[in-house]
Amino acid sequence: MAHITVVGLGPGAPESLTRAAWETLAQAPAVWLRTAHHPVVPYLPQGPVIHSFDALYEQAVSFEAVYAAIVAQVLELGALQEGVVYAVPGHPLVGEATVTRILQAARAANIPVRIVPGVSFIEPTLTALALDPLDGLQIVDALDLVGAHYPMFNPDMPALVAQVYSRTVASDLKLVLMEAYPDEHSVALVHAAGTATEQVLWGPLYEIDHSDATPLTSLYVPPLPTISGFEHFQETVAHLRSPEGCPWDREQTHASLRATLLEETYEVLEAIDTEDMHALREELGDLLLQVVMHGQIASEEGEFRMTDVIAGIDAKLKHRHPHVWGNVRVADAQEVTVNWELIKRQERADGGVAQRSLLDGIPKALPALAQACAYSSRAARVGLDWLPADSLLAQIKQHLEVLDAAPTPEDRAQSLGDLLFALSAWARRMDMDPEGILREANARFARRVRYIEETARRHGLTLEALSDAEKVRLWDEAAH
């Protein structure tokens, strides 16, 4: 009757071929190999007729096409009365994309499938490296990693990257890994684990593509020497909040941390303004602590979990970037902005949220200048920005004239507010950040004042003792 038997051939050494696999192969009239390029093939039983799918690898344009063709042929052979024996390297359910697809397709076609286990590449690799996988070992496919932009595993735990097929794959792989690991991070290339030609080559990450790799090559990536993963950091914060943690941290609430969150945000902005990358790295850490602390408090109160926060923002980003994770085409950044607003509007409608103002969602606690820029930016997204830049300048001059002629303090205050808003709108129109620019101007002013103060102190004088001419001279000196 119709059936499919999938046999694991082990890592390559003849002695690693299991007795069950040998007997299954020996009793089969024919055996189909995913690939004949496997060290154990010359040692297979002599009885069955051996076929392979290697020709498909030479004809197809991608692995996906190869796998699809193999699955289709195995299903076709399995539907015959005599069934089919299909043999794959290692264990059938470890790194074998064709087998998982065959299981799905056979289930749909009501064709029974028997799995004959084999020793996978993992066991001999662990032996070669003297590793215990229960120490947090993560196992990933090299082809999954090279298709990513950042390594999707915890750098605080060891990782085993399988199927580093070629030098090209190794080259792409190291570029992804270097997003999380230093170039000099010591790693091990494991070639042909469990065979007579097994090799373990240690070296820096940046050199992994300096030697040849084959389908029997894996890469072992030890953990980073210091805690660097998000999961461990969450554990640190959770420990601080635990009964055996810190009394001060345990007392904090969402409300009590408001001022600290704002302070840390401004310290990040200051590091950006001064272009101090060392300070920026440190301040981003302090800000991240605030985010994780709020997530931990919410988790303890049953409000939400940190995983909910990450899932929400990840889903939102992907939904609002259909030109990246979808089929939408955009001409430029302006079209992205327009689509963003349309998507947000549709999200609110789908969620049953009543139509809101265009300006809703801009924090009321923002500094006034930043809030003005945000308001004019939102308005511009729907075309409420029809004046050209030179007309805005003319409007600013007009506001100055009105301010100069204002008859009462109230009129002057309103005119000054209109002037500041117009300046903010003009700056945004010129692709400038008025809040950041004013912060830089504040820093320049403070630097000049401190220069005058320090100069006066060196001469034993106070600021009040300086003449106006001396103050002007020192002010000009401070500018250089």
Description of the structure:
- With 480 residues, the protein is of the alpha/beta class.
- The chain has 6 domains: 4-119, Cobalt-precorrin-4 Transmethylase, domain 1; 123-221, Tetrapyrrole methylase, C-terminal domain (Methyltransferase, Cobalt-precorrin-4 Transmethylase, Domain 2), CATH 3.30.950.10; 230-304, Orthogonal Bundle (Helix Hairpins); 320-357, no CATH class; 365-432; 436-478, no CATH class.
- It has helices spanning 19-27, 54-59, 63-78, 97-109, 122-129, 142-146, 167-177, 230-241, 247-251, 258-273, 277-300, 306-319, 333-350, 368-381, 389-405, 409-429, 434-458, 468-478, and strands spanning 4-8, 30-33, 49-52, 84-88, 113-116, 138-141, 159-162, 186-191, 199-204, 217-221.
- A 5-stranded parallel beta sheet has the order 3-2-4-1-5, sandwiched between helices. A 5-stranded mixed beta sheet has the order 6-7-10-8-9.
- Strand 6 (138-141), helix 6 (142-146) and strand 7 form a beta-alpha-beta unit.
- Helix 3 crosses helix 4, helix 10 packs antiparallel against helix 11 and helix 14 packs across helix 16 (409-429).
- The longest helix has 25 residues, at 434-458.
- The mean pLDDT is 90.
